[in-house]
Amino acid sequence: MHPFSFAKAANTRDALDAGRHGGRYIAGGTTLVDLMRETVERPETLVDISDLPLRDVTVAERGGLRIGALVTMSEAAAHPKVRTLYPVISQALELSASAQLRNMATIGGNIMQRTRCTYFRDVTADCNKREPGSGCAALKGFNRTHAILGTSDACVATHPSDAAVAFAALEARVHLLGPDGERQVPFADFLLRPGNTPNREQALRRGELITGVEVPALPRPLKSGYLKVRDRQSYEFALTSAAVALHVRGGVIREAKVAAGGVGTVPWKLPAVERHLVGERPSDSLWAAAAERAADGARPLRHNRFKVELLKRTVERQLRVVGGSK
315 with 291: CB under 8 angstroms? Predict the structure, then answer.
């Protein structure tokens, strides 16, 4: 670990001032500290923001939900309103990491976490995300766990967050506060695909701070859930996952929200699947037909071709779980 200075922000103004001068924000530290130990991250200054008033979960009048950036994963997962209104979020959080990490890690930190690509974390390997222009060792290396959607010739690393898949499916918005004031960014625009600049991962401006994640109000009744497929039952990242939310009224699907994880360079929204569902009556044949569209545009690599079929099966299974089998 390289030397760094440490400061604790007493208020939002202190935090923004430190961030404007290059300080890196830290709360739970469950990802950043690991990367610092491995010398992947080498910040000169850390700014502890754990005392900022960003720990509330609030419900809007129409049923939307806002989760403060410093709410821990375990707090968010256990919150009665989160569990009742959007079980897909609770389930995604509870299937993440270990109980000890969930007690420390925050919502803001979770969506900011960096990839678990072994080449990214190995400072001796070529990695455009870590060192722009150095190349991508995963392209010709062992790439079983890497992405099949949203990839580029510069990067094929997956985004690791489970909660981010739920937020992507529900079309959440990220609330930001920076030197230029407050703004909101659609979740789909907040996490960036690699393109030619895989080192730029979020649509953050210098010194900006995440203050919360807002899930919009969706029609009721709404059924939702999260499915995670992995090599072992616990403490493992997804090979594939599916976040599904369905609004069914009068026996017809009126609204469908679907996203996948473990297969994309960012949490991957599945609009083709959603379009296939809306206006139809739930049935096993519908789930199967819709899931066939889940891997549209996939570019599998040598060792992860199995993810194409696994993604389709994962989406189909979760559609059946949430929407029912007929």
Answer: yes
Query: Is 2 a member of any domain?
Result: yes
Q: Distance (Å, rounded) from C-alpha 153 to C-alpha 300?
A: 12
Look at the chain and count its residues. Answer: 326
CATH code of the domain covering residue 313: 3.30.390.50
- C-alpha–C-alpha distance, residues 267 and 261, integer Å: 5
Position 144 in a domain: no
What does the alpha-carbon distance between residue 226 and residue 91 come to, in Å, rounded to a whole number?
Answer: 6
pLDDT in tens, 162-195: 999 999 999 999 999 999 999 999 999 999 999 9
* CA atoms lying within 13 Å on the CB side of residue 102: 20
Count how many Cα atoms sit within 13 Å of the Cα of residue 72 in the half-sphere of its side chain. 16
| Structure-token pair, residue 263 | 């297969």
| Residues contacting residue 301 through CB under 8 Å, at least 6 positions apart | 138, 139, 143, 146, 148, 156
7 forms beta bridges with: 47
Instruction: Report if residue 247 sits inside a domain.
Output: yes
Going by the DSSP 8-state scheme, the letter that residue 295 receives in this structure is T
203 close to 57: Cβ distance less than 8 angstroms: no
| Total domains, the chain | 2
Domain assignment of residue 252, yes or no? yes
The parent domain of residue 258 ranges over 223-323
**pLDDT tens readout for residues 103-148:** 999 999 999 999 999 999 999 999 999 999 999 999 999 999 999 9
Helices (H), 126-283: 163-169, 187-190, 271-277
